[in-house]
Here is the input.
Amino acid sequence: MKSPHETRSAQALFEPTQAGAFRLRNRIVMAPLTRNRAGAGLVPGPFAVEYYAQRASAGLIIAEATQISAQAQGYSGTPGCYSDDQIRGWKEVTDAVHAKGGTIVVQLWHTGRISHTSFQSGGQAPVGPSARRANAKTFVGGQGFVDVSTPRALELDEIPGIIADFRYAATRAVEAGFDGVELHGAHGYLLDAFLRDGTNLRTDAYGGSIGNRARLLFEVATACAGAIGADRLGVRISPVSTAGDSHDSGPQALFTHVVEGLGRLGLAYLHVVEGETGGARDSIPFDYAALRDRFDGVWMVNNGYDRQMAIEAVMSGRADLVSFGRLFIANPDLPLRLKEDAALNALMGAETFYGGGAHGYTDYPAMERGRVATRMGEKALA
Here is the structure.
């Protein structure tokens, strides 16, 4: 169990720290943000190079959710991390971030049942723990948001291949110059769907009990830690978020088990989405402090944090790192703006979030260094 939280100064959010193998210039993290701008072959292009380089002042950048395989795709324009062309594209991104002194990892995902037959070889069904369709939508090029397809249940003998795909993508990520990897174990995607009794109806070694449902996440994390080092690996979880039609009858017990198991691996960090993704932080009663006390490593929090909340979370020791999503979309120099309590750019229209080119992606202005403006009066979502 974790020892009592360290009390820090009010400036701790803006000061250097260590997270596993990563020496971070501050405790402000850019959360992974799906932007659907990968090009042919799901290769990140020149706009991505500029976008991430603009945000290199973050203590840590977590690059957008990225497929471990062709089967893992669930949305149009999301990049991969398994082909040679994808690795070359990502290498340009990581080189640009490193040239500005930044640290960057990539979030690896398998979208599981949050997918569509149009993304699958031969128009086959996507895969999940069970053949239960999610009440959710995905983004298909030329069609916009459409209902996800009904999945088929993964066969038991297919699961080692999923684990191998995660491990392979992790090694390719390091080859691409990433400092490490975050596993997407949240928001109803494959690893999260296996965790929850509302989506996992299996009766084999990967279903039923909490221990069985957590087996795949633990096996994937162990395989990736063995491949790249546990101190270069993080995991993201969302204990009560219903994103991706995700539900569990006992999230406190489930995620206590998950956090304790991941804690034994010596991860670089654990990334915890508090509350409903992009929404209420108290949507479902949940004791995050009790969860935090079960983990001895670096604890990263996300969802709805503003400047003061982030300062207080780090100062109190309730969190070690704070990740911001939408604030980083609109503010490439977010750490400076937060440190100086400066005004924040407003988000451009929602039509710029997913897909497109530079507009709403790389054309948000940076603040002139040292210019202090009025404080933002309204909280923004992370």
Observations:
- The radius of gyration is 19 Å.
- The CA atoms of residues 239 and 255 lie 6 Å apart.
- DSSP finds eleven helices and 14 strands in the chain.
